Structures
1.
Amino acid sequence: SDLSHIRNFAIIAHIDHGKSTLADRLIQLCGNVEDRDMKEQLLDSMDLERERGITIKAQTVRLNYTSPSDGRTYQLNLMDTPGHVDFAYEVSRSLAACEGSLLVVDASQGVEAQTLANVYQAIDAGHEIIPVLNKIDLPAAEPERVKQQIEDVIGLDTSDSVGISAKTGLHVDQVLEALVHRLPPPKGNLEAPLQALLVDSWYDSYLGVITLVRVREGVVRKGMRLRMMATGAVHLVDKVGIFTPKMVETDSLSAGEMGFIMSGIKSVADCQIGDTLTDERNPAATPLPGFKPSVPVVWCGLFPVDTSDFEALRDSLAKLRLNDSSFEYQADTSAALGFGFRCGFLGLLHMEIIQERLEREFDLDLITTAPSVVYRLYMTDGVMSELHNPADMPDPAKIDHMEEPWVKATIMVPDDYLGQVLALCTERRGIQLDLTYAGNRAMAVYKLPLNEIVFDFYDRLKSISRGYASFDYEMSEYQESDLVRISILVNAEPVDALSFIAHRSQAEYRGRQICARLKDLIPRHLFKIPIQAAIGGRVIARETIAAMRKDVTAKCYGGDITRKKKLLEKQKAGKKRMRQFGKVEIPQTAFISALRMN
Ligand code: GTP
């Protein structure tokens, strides 16, 4: 079977280097979309994504391109990949569906941390890679210097690279020519039993579950009975089709092609990403190599501000999970916050996105507890268990030892800021593995405990480098560590949602910092409030909030009544986000801000 007219490719880039702009241009050049239909970012369908400028869901677009050099019409399948470190697993599975990649590098910025992370994944996937230097319209563009950097840092030959402006369209036609002449076509046999890789799936409220597949062998048709090889489930194919980027139904999808299948599946949870779909009547002998399942690495508690919203929160989480199988949740109770859920995320950005969607799309007011990583507990009786919530920490006397997860982090930073960046890594218990230079930029590779970066590492890195440092990490391994749980007592009552786990060497410093911060975050009451940090029964830090002297509205008496009303309304609105602990009210902001480090 002749697949020589097909090219499957991904665009990989550091955030903001112009991936979406280039994708839009390619779509436009291939005539799929009328100019007037072009939205800002065609591939980003969710509003929230558009706002953040981050592509969350991997999607694919089929383009028809007639090459002026040989007169042939090619089928190009463009796979969109997310750029952020939290979604690295989505990048790897998008790449598994393609034979080649366009590596887009901003010619005014050069190679950044996600450029490296993505290109290494593409190399692992066996891709042919075409370097594309973007933004050459900018006066600050230095394509020659950046080419040299790509050769030095990544080791890719750049003699055939293409210099373009995705914004103005300059030389984008050369990208299309490079795609058809330099990337290999897919391999596959139309006569073989069906093997289709399940790349992604999502829930659409009108259409139900949609799966994105890459057909490796054979053909999938409407009316076929499909078996998912890992789960064994069998479904009848209702529709198959492609994205242009609009959804268009087709008769079939054949070996080498990508597209969607709809087949009466009820929930995304029933679709195991990386599974192989085959024909029930004529099944393939073996499944395709799948993907590693994504494992949540950061957990936090989500509690409704208004306790009567618990059921609404449960419904909303179930709906979100339909579209995002990498997000996990389980019911949880907190003495301080009542009934809620413990939720697991791929990283901090993923956590923020889910929280924001819950608040915006489902109109819920939430209290979020501080994020925590997953620790391993080895008990004296030989049992190992995972600790997702610091509040569940057992009696330390029963713990033989604990382990915490480490990551391997790559940081790219201009020389001028290197000193501060190295100091930050050391302060966060980092171990330097490598330090190299390319031009005036340094690349530092560190091993760091994940619990030292989940909070504000990225924010700190950006602020000490004035935004110039870029950062990427991958999970490394678990290592034994001297960890302790620090409890926080407000007015002598432990607030379980504020407890956290830290390395013993940092416990006292962190405890002191949090007490000081809570002192500012908790409003004064009519009585004195002691705030304490403790390890077991031993208090390691203490602050006191002085008693309030006057009623806030007192000075308005006799004065302007509307002003007084406004003040009371403001207080009421503020209360919505407060929680009562014994006699003390703690504002929602305290739960996250208190643990933020400086
Ligand atoms: P994410 O979706 O966040 O991963 O970013 P991206 O890599 O898709 O980048 P995007 O296409 O959103 O471009 C980032 C910014 O660079 C936008 O403001 C674009 O308008 C701008 N941009 C993209 N290509 C060019 C170019 O060739 N020249 C200039 N001057 N600006 C460009």
Note: Residues 50-56 have pLDDT under 50 and may be disordered.
2.
Amino acid sequence: MSEHAVHPVPQWWAENALIGADEYAVKYRASIADPDDFWRGEAQRVTWMKRFNSVKNTSFDAEDFRIRWFEDGTLNLAANCLDRHLPAKANDTAILWEPDDPARPGRTLTYGELHEQVCQFANALRADGVKKGDRVTIYLPMVPEAAVAMLACARIGAVHSIVFAGFSPDALAGRISDCESDIVLTADEGLRGGKAVPLKANVDAALEKVGVRRVVMLRHTGKDVPIVEGRDVDWADYAAGQPAECEPEEMNAEDPLFILYTSGSTGKPKGVLHTTGGYAVWVSMTHEYTFDYRAGEVYWCAADIGWVTGHSYVVYGPLMNGAITLMFEGVPNYPDFSRFWQVVDKYDVATFYAAPTALRALMREGDEWVKKTSRKSLRLLGSVGEPINPEAWDWYYNVVGDARCPIVDTWWQTETGGHMITPLPGAHALKPGSASFPMFGVQPALVDPADGHILDGANEGALVILDSWPGQMRTVYGDHNRFIQTYFSQYPGKYFTGDGCRRDADGYYWITGRIDDVINVSGHRMGTAEVESALVDHDAVAEAAVVGMPHDIKGQGIYAYVTTMEDVEPTEALRKELVQWVRKEIGPIATPDVIQFAPALPKTRSGKIMRRILRKIAENDTGNLGDTSTLADPSVVEDLLANRPHVA
Ligand code: 6R9
């Protein structure tokens, strides 16, 4: 396997980092040898209301399954993110907000101001009858009020469920009804790249399918939108007159904190449930060590709060650590391709954390957009969401970071709450494209996908985690069985990640991508089953099969094979209609890149679609389709090959 240059730990980092090579080795060993002792220590980063005695009470064995961390301790996460930083940090910046349009003013919220806004909003929710354990749906753009909403929920023990503001009304309705939430927090409109996103209109459309008691709407763009009397209320009116102090709810460490829906290999999105205590310790620890966070530095994670990266590394991790977290409403290419780096210069950003898809898109536009900015404040770069190809890594390192800043390529998942495998900038020489080494307390292993036995040494297999870590999801909301089935049944006694992975002779881990029916489009997870079900919902479609295809910018694109109903002609107009249909059903991130009409799909005699073949055709790797002898009708494949659309 050819590898790019290895980048040794720069001297400054070796001498100054919070975690150096020796310290990593010692701490890692300790975290595995005596987890109770290790985590009792790390748990001191939380201010507990009631100290815990029990640290780790977990088992992945089916008969005895349990995941409980710090289970007799109590805390409040909002108080940990805010109150305990006061009064010392009351006037220090908590959130820097940069709007979509650089000509408009940004906003700064100090810890004192954020505390006040969170308390007022928390009081308003309480006054409106929202109680501990109630689910609150949040459908907001990247504005400080999104963080206020999350923290206000955490303060009163309500469970937030954030729905990415790019999702469609249908997707929103499904998530509202799955968690039986009766209140939605939204805005009139979002703004991205100069375009308005009709959030309130989407909420109204969603609420034609599922009723809620209350909609709280932030006036963000000022657009005139219809108001439903009795149900809808203005954010400002809702919070007006509420006291600036609000007693935080005492939460058990294992009380739910949030639900976040994510795509799986089957059926509808799963409500990933995270609890309070373990998650707090996990995101605080990983944010500090991975990013070598130093007080006073500006830290920028460019993810949207609608994804787990936004939860853990825009809001909870940084605020736990009293950091300055930058929230960016916009997009990398508006008004032009320098936007990211102009924001870096404007706020003297020290750490920048983004997805490879954005980097690839910017790389394509040439180095000038980067080079005309200074970026001298940058100290560390991060990558998340998908494998970063070595070319993009080199560009990020050399052009963006001027060969000065280490890159932390953090592998983790919605399910894991925070970083699981990542280099630490002061501890590990970097290999472009490798997520490198496990975080403290994480025991990765590779197993043979066929029989599940553990593979040693330099090897490639399915990535599993052998034991629990504090930030682990606890259940699929409302469907614990699905949780066990999805993650612990394939390789009994182990957590299955869904990813393939290689370990090299130096022990570095290289994530190779999903090995289940999940594809990764622009760093966002998409279940192929979800797109298929959207397609077959269309009257013209009899059957659909969706696979990933290589895509220069998005990493993976969506390739859909569609069989139309008997009496329906597969036309260009229908192709366009189906693309729009999927966008409407799920959201723009699910836009199919290719739709190939197929009179039939390749199936085994038992009727199972042979996705392996469909993947090969989509990848244009048609030289060797492998064994097709079990196909019920091999001529189907010839037709697919003959009619493969030209893919740009
Ligand atoms: C945080 C997040 C999880 C899936 C995961 C994997 C892919 C994430 C990666 C990576 C290679 C990295 N993934 N980070 N693959 N290298 N550094 O993205 O969560 O949206 O749940 O996606 O993303 O395939 O299984 P989520």
Note: Residues 111-127 form the longest helix (17 residues).
